Amino acid sequence: MPGKCKYIFVTGGVTSSLGKGIISASLGKLLQSRGYSVTIQKFDPYINVDPGTLNPYEHGECYVTDDGAETDLDLGHYERFISTPTSQANNVTTGRIYQNVIQKERRGDYLGKTVQVVPHITNEIKKGFKTLGDSGKYDFVITEIGGTIGDIESQPYVEAMRQFRWELGEARSLGIHLTLVPYLKTTGELKTKPTQHSVKELLSLGVQPDILVCRTEYHLNDDVKRKIALFCNVKLDAVIESIDADTIYDVPLLMQDQKLDEVVLKYLNLPVGESPKLKTWREFLQHVKHPTSEIEIALVGKYIELKDSYKSILEAFNHGGASNSCKVNIRWIDAEAVTAETAPELFKGINGILVAPGFGERGIDGKISAIQYVRENNIPFLGICLGMQCAVIEYGRNVLNLPNCDSTEFSPLATNKVIDLMEDQKNVSNLGGTMRLGSYECHLKEDSIVLRAYNNKQINERHRHRFEFNSDYLEAYEKAGMIATGFNPDSGLVEIVELPSHPWFVGVQFHPEYKSTVANPHPLFIEFVKAVMQHSKN
Ligand code: GLN
Q1: Catalytic residue among 62, 385, 390, 442
Q2: From 216's CA, which of 39, 177, 371, 420 has a CA 20 to 30 Å away?
Q3: For residue 523, what pLDDT is reported?
């Protein structure tokens, strides 16, 4: 129904980190399993044009889409839940909105008018709200507004949403507001006041929410729900409890139990029909909750204090683990703590090591020591992006005995730059959005671990890096036992390295973790987990 798509807005109140992304993704999943086509987008109120230039400690991992957009990690949840690829249009920031408006102003598009937040910024936001809807591909566009209601910086979004919904008219849109119902231990009560205040805040901006999703540690009884409904001016069945869950993958089922999808459909005058069974999802959950085995994998990285920095990797392990009916426990290893001396203790009892992506020199020596340890002790290894580059440096130093062997990133004057800047990166001066980004084709070699894993000679994977394996060294590496098993068919760039003499040693220049979903767990994670399970039996 082109042009007739419905718009659902998700806002958050009381506090940040209530899980708007997971609620949006869960609702998307529920609507999708009823046969609707759904896309989910996020509008972020910060001024960075995209999160590509942000340190992971700020907002967690930067998620990369097929079309090379560097985006908020919530887009990863959207893809993992609904398996529909997202794109640049699915993530818009205040920085991007202003950039567009200022460009238009410089071009003279505003014909001498004073350029203002209302209407120019709000109009640009509204344009963003409907870009995906206008494509005619979707029945529903779910829009998550980042930040918390009451923040100064999210106000233009709320105003744009108010106008947009008014312009759409009846039954074309609805607003879900996520709030917190805290439990006061001393009095043993669930408190509704923060929710009331948050809704009041929204009302002061001209917006009446239609559905309230209330995060809570304890079940909301009918009295609490009635009180929230009465004071917040919503229907009783539109007060949805969102109780703390064991795993984020419980949330679609919890929302289905609470009839969130039914309330949404009713509100939008759509037929409700039978509830979808969510069979595959339930099977996946069954494996997550009742695994038949357990392994521990060490994740070596330098942003380990904030687990969100490695969100997609952790979720890919959940998917790959579930495929093997195996629980994957992560041992977090600070790259800077690893040396030849500390490695045996740090990795004691470990049957697999993943060396994480990253930027800059800090932690590189530790990553290289970790790789030497796995290589020499035949422990299954997966190196992603910087992890792959470190594997190449380690092999160059310790097996090929190349003096002063390094990556141009850390040592621009090294004699043997086995990882080097790509030609088209040499004149790049701006850091934002200028890496090799997005999906590229890769051809796999016969008789390789990766071909066995993917069972397909031609794959597409997402990239986010500036540096590459320096092909001048390929022959020497292959002679010495490290072989390239994946190539970019256009540029000839090496995308994958393996050690055939080792039980399972794979370094990939791309990021497989971005493409793992509940419905399609990533083959490399499935096979890596399998190799680790095998190793743990030895
Ligand atoms: N810093 C490396 C590069 O830019 C690796 C990037 C990454 O791990 N994503 O090539």
Answers
A1: 385
A2: 39
A3: 98
Rounded distance between C-alpha atoms, residue 475 and residue 458, angstroms = 23
Residue 433's pLDDT is what?
A: 76
pLDDT at 3: 54
Out of 319, 513, 522, 527, pick the active-site residue: 513
For residue 453, report the distance from its CA to the centre of ligand 1, in Å: 24
Compute, in angstroms, the gap from residue 346 CA to the centroid of ligand 1.
25
Residue that the structure tokens 């040592």 belong to: 411
User: What is the rounded distance in angstroms from the CA atom of residue 167 to the CA atom of residue 119?
Assistant: 14
Asked if 159 is an active-site residue, the reply is: no
Q: Which parts of the chain sit beneath pLDDT 50?
A: 1-2
Q: How do residues 10-50 score in pLDDT, each as one tens digit?
A: 999 988 889 999 999 999 999 999 999 999 999 999 999 88
Residues having CB within 6 Å of any atom of ligand 1? 357-359, 385-386, 409, 464-467
Sheet holding 405-407, edge to edge: 405-407, 416-421, 467-469
Tokens of 36: 């609707």
Among protein residues, the one with the nearest Cα to ligand 1's atom 1 is 359
Tell me what pLDDT residue 424 has.
76
Residue located nearest, by CA, to atom 8 of ligand 1 = 357
Q: Which of 77, 177, 465, 511 is catalytic?
A: 511
Q: Which residue bears the tokens 């160059």?
A: 396
511 is catalytic: yes
As a three-state string, the secondary structure of 58-78 is HHCCCEECCCCCEECCHHHHH
This prediction's pTM:
0.94
To test the ligand 1 pocket, which listed residue (386, 390, 407, 431) has its Cβ within 8 A of the most ligand atoms? 386
End-to-end CA distance of the chain: 57
The alpha carbons of the chain give a radius of gyration, in whole angstroms, of: 25
Interval 429-478: pLDDT, tens: 777 778 889 999 999 999 999 999 999 999 999 999 999 999 999 999 99
Residue 480 and residue 430 in contact, taking contact as beta carbons nearer than 8 Å? no
Closest CA to 390 of 350, 421, 353, 418: 418
Helix (H) or strand (E) segment spanning residue 516 = none
Atom of ligand 1 nearest to the CA of 360: 1
